[in-house]
Design brief:
single chain; 5-stranded mixed beta sheet; about 425 residues; alpha/beta; binds magnesium ion; binds adenosine-5'-triphosphate; 2 domains; Nucleotidyltransferase, domain 5; 17 strands
């Protein structure tokens, strides 16, 4: 695409784990630097009680990990479409609606993009997953409307949406010189999205691409679900998950579920949970494990543990095993997790991703040998088992994996030119 002048609008990839902003202008790469030269801004916000300040991105994670008292929120996008969205959370002694919390992040994302670009943006194309909510069209529309309201509250005057995998396709299309039928597989932090689309330099000039898009599909499974499964299988048992009470009952699992799920971690910090766990402690057959759980909650270390689990998961993409250092919970406690353990824990997730893709291919009526290329994007496509499952359905297709974190934002920038000039 030849560019004579900078685009009027930007593209915003508000991701579950990372956000990016793309903007096309002559002789520059498409992504704006949002934090210390990085194109990605982790979708994290930290309310620092000690300093009475708020930070986002890597700085937020660093302040939390440095031990500042406060509240960390991650996987903000997972709140969209969830019942939590209507509610509030306690932050710095006051009750903050989740809606406002997401707006605070968005305002900062916009501000950083504008600083990097040296101009302001009134218009933006926002990415959205194919489904914010699986199997519930009304809830899905509501999630998009909520994101639009957040975008407007953050200062964007004109907002439109494009599916994230289609955006990635437009980014890839800028690199090819002949026609290809491409399956985009975007496996992010919160969702897995697929688009089957015909791409070529000639087609790229058309404004209406409906004929080129053969199918779109997705499922609400991403890297955060893999974290959760690994945590429940490999780490939460050390804190008493699946242990027994003296009266012969199972230890309740809800607190472990909350701790293993990024966007519900803060729910274990309520006084009610604390009182309940004190009682369970007296009844537990595994007091040593519950000691760890209580210490974790007392020190507000839920996100610290989730960060260890996520890092372990990423290490298992390359290695066969990884050792977690958990001496924050018990002095000298080390725990080794293996690739096999991870694969067993997440086999069902991979199966559901595989089924979603085979249904999509069947519905599109496209036989697998017609697909020329699988374009992988999204951080969680780093999980070998997921890549293999997808590739096994399209054995003849060429596989492309590039910058797993940048193609959606870069593609949304292409879409922004199409829509706003
Ligand atoms: N090498 C790796 N192996 C496995 N998983 C990885 C790797 N690198 C990153 N991840 C995971 O990728 C996920 C983040 O990917 P990405 O930034 O593409 O998501 P996102 O765009 O924020 O989410 P979504 O598009 O679903 O809203 C995280 O769950 C992270 O743990
Ligand atoms: Mg994404």
């Amino acid at each position: 695409m030849f560019l004579a002048a900078p685009a009027r609008a930007c593209g915003i990839d508000f991701g579950t784990s990372n956000s990016t902003v793309g903007w096309l202008r002559p002789n520059h790469p498409p992504l704006l630097a949002l934090e210390d030269g990085h194109a990605t801004l982790p979708s994290v916000i930290f309310f620092n009680v000690e300093e009475n300040s708020t930070s986002v991105g890597r700085a937020a994670l660093n302040e939390y990990l440095a031990g500042y008292e406060g509240r960390l929120m991650r996987a903000l996008k997972s709140l969209l479409g969830s019942s939590l969205m209507e509610g509030k959370t306690e932050v710095q002694g006051r009750s903050l609606p989740y809606m406002e919390l997401l707006s605070q992040f968005m305002v900062e994302l916009k501000r950083r993009a504008e600083t990097a670009a040296g101009r302001s943006f009134d218009q933006a194309v926002f990415g959205r997953p194919v489904f914010f909510v699986d199997d519930d069209a009304a809830a899905d529309r509501k999630a998009e409307a909520t994101l639009e309201a957040i975008a407007r509250a953050s200062g964007f005057k004109e907002v439109c949406f494009q599916y994230e995998p289609i955006a990635a396709a437009y980014h890839y299309e800028r690199q090819i010189d002949r026609e290809e039928l491409v399956l985009v597989a975007d496996i992010g932090g919160g969702t897995t999205d697929f688009s089957l689309i015909r791409l070529s330099p000639q087609r790229a000039r058309n404004t209406d691409r409906r004929e080129d898009l053969l199918a779109n599909g997705g499922v609400h499974i991403g890297g955060t679900n893999f974290d959760r499964q690994l945590s429940l299988a490999g780490v939460m048992p050390l804190l008493g998950y699946r242990s027994m009470l003296k009266r012969g009952l199972d230890m309740p699992s809800s607190h472990y579920m909350n701790l293993a799920t990024w966007h519900t971690i803060n729910q274990v910090y309520t006084r009610r949970t604390w009182a309940e766990l004190q009682e369970l402690y007296l009844d537990s057959q595994a007091p040593e494990a519950l000691d760890r759980l209580l210490k974790l909650i007392r020190e507000r270390s839920g996100h610290w543990l989730a960060i260890q689990v996520e890092a372990a998961k990423i290490a298992l993409s390359d290695g066969e095993k990884v050792t977690l250092n958990l001496d924050k919970l018990t002095p000298n406690l080390q725990h080794t997790l293996t690739r096999l353990e991870f694969e067993l824990a997440s086999a069902q997730l991979v199966e559901r991703i595989g089924t979603t893709l085979s249904t999509l291919l069947a519905t599109a009526g496209v036989s697998h040998e017609k697909v020329d290329t699988v374009f992988f994007t999204g951080g969680a496509s780093g999980v070998p088992m997921v890549r293999e499952r997808i590739a096994s359905l399209l054995p003849q297709a060429r596989r492309i994996e590039e910058d797993l974190f940048g193609s959606i934002g870069a593609g949304l920038a292409v879409e922004a030119i199409r829509r706003f000039g």
